[in-house]
Amino acid sequence: LQNDGQEKSLLVQLTPYGVGQFLIVTRDVTQVEKLETTRKDFVANVSHELRTPLTVLSGFLETLRDMPAESLSGEQKARYQNLMLEQAQRMQAIVADLLTLSTLESSPTAGGEPVRMGSVIRNALQQGHILSNGQHVFVENIAEDLCITGVETELASAVSNLLTNAIRYTPKDGTITVSWYLTEDGHACYSVQDTGIGIASQDIPRLTERFYRVDRGRSRATGGTGLGLAITKHVAMRHNADLTIHSRFGAGSLFSLVFPPARVSLA
Ligand code: ADP
Questions:
Q1: What is its EC number (predicted)?
Q2: In whole angstroms, what is the distance from residue 144 CA to residue 179 CA?
Q3: The complex's ipTM?
Q4: Which of 229, 233, 244, 246 has most ligand 1 atoms within 8 Å of its beta carbon, as the pocket-test mutant?
Q5: Nearest CA, atom 4, ligand 1
Q6: Helix ranges, 30-69 (H)
Q7: Residues near 226 by Cβ (< 8 Å), separated by ≥ 6?
Q8: What angle, 0 to 180 degrees and rounded to 10, lies between the N-to-C axes of helices 152-168 and 117-126?
Q9: Contacts of 29 (CB under 8 A, 6+ apart)
């Protein structure tokens, strides 16, 4: 076995091989073990993420069942109903994102047609939930005729995810700058820069893991499923693009999707 400096898991089998002889078979099972650990973690995470809203939901339902109907005012009833709806919608969002991820994983590269990313970005910026929190959003330098060969719905979800995150993790009065441009060496770059809470360097490599959040409470409170960047990373991979993240804790972040020249065309 080649020693690449990494810790290895080896499976060693001793098999009788003729009179007084044995065959030693050594197999490197490092990768198999890693996959198994990832799978187990994933199942545990999904169960945990779904169990939380389910517990809240059944708590409210029990309370409603056990309370005499006349002791609830109309206002209280409406409040309980809204809280229960919120939890149900949370589960729906998690399941929808999990389905999106598993569809993306089922094939490694995307075909598709030239997509005008300028329109995709403008559409995303007009979605109600993206612009609601009082941050200043500047659209800088959108190259209107710059297209990416790919699947429009996937590209649109990657574009929205980075924008939604910038809004989610930037306080009111912060600034978000969005750009879409051709680089000197023929790559196309979509970038979203914010002056938000930023990310400590040790967290950056883990952000695209499913359900990884720096601050669980904040992500949940803002409606995040913890799957947005995992989806964005998969969309990037399927379009041979790189998702790059630069950030400074307390100062802000720059997320970019960089597409290779082979995917780029002008309309
Ligand atoms: P979530 O639904 O929690 O936003 P994501 O996968 O989109 O899930 O992001 C994972 C985590 O990365 C977030 O919980 C947050 O901690 C961090 N993050 C993502 N975008 C930003 C950003 N623009 N500024 C600061 N932190 C961010």
A1: 2.7.13.3
A2: 11
A3: 0.99
A4: 229
A5: 224
A6: 30-66
A7: 49, 210, 211, 212, 213, 219
A8: 40
A9: 9, 10, 11
Strand order from edge to edge, sheet including 264-266:
113-116, 146-150, 264-266
Looking up tokens 């994983």 gives: 105
Nearest CA to ligand 1 atom 7: 228
Euclidean distance between CA atoms 220 and 218, whole angstroms: 5
Q: Are 254 and 193 in contact (CB under 8 A)?
A: yes
Which amino acid makes up residue 167? I
Q: What are the backbone dihedrals phi and psi of residue 262, each rounded to the nearest 5 degrees, phi first?
A: -60, -20
Residue recorded with tokens 């080649």: 2
Please list the residues that pair with 142 across neighbouring strands: 180
- Give the length of the chain: 267
pTM: 0.86
Q: Rg of the chain's alpha carbons, rounded to an integer?
A: 24
User: Which residue in this structure is represented by tokens 């229960």?
Assistant: 84
Token pair for residue 111?
Answer: 């075909």
Cβ-based burial of 47 (10 A; exposed 0-12, middle 13-18, buried ≥19): exposed
Q: pLDDT for 21-76, tens place per residue?
A: 888 888 888 888 888 888 888 889 999 999 989 999 999 999 888 988 888 888 88
Atom of ligand 1 at shortest range from CA of 197: 25
Q: Which two tokens stand for residue 224?
A: 């995040």
For β-strands 146-150 and 113-116, DSSP reports them as antiparallel
